[in-house]
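thought: fold this chain, then report.
action: predict
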Amino acid sequence: MLRLLNEPSWLRFIGDKGIRTLEAARDYILKGPVEMYSRLGFGLYLVELKEENLSIGICGLIKRDSLEDVDIGFAFLPEYWGKGYAYEAASAVIDYGVNALGLKRIVAITSIDNDSSAKLLAKLGLRFEKLVKLSDDSEAVKLFGIDV
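observation:
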């Protein structure tokens, strides 16, 4: 997680969370995904390669105060891009959201210039809907959605 949070692609498209130590990364996990699991029953999940027991990224569902719907999020280490892992993980997360959680709609956000993520979202069936701002002082992001 520490490496992922400091990857140039994370910093560019998601933002600098200021996490520079293992202790800070543990705290980020506890106050983010773990807290969301306990409060809502879902969150971001670790994505691993089973055969190697190797962590390659994260993918899961997030409920942001600034969005009406639950959104899907994902980030992978660059050496695992373009190999189908993000599509496989995101497809499983959407299936879980629909069949286990009963979600009727799932959204996603990307920075305006994150074409790779937008392409994956289209492959998953999400369609661009509009530009939104998550807060008054944030930059606009693209909002994608799918009614499931």
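thought: worth noting. The chain has five helices and six strands.
final: tokens above.
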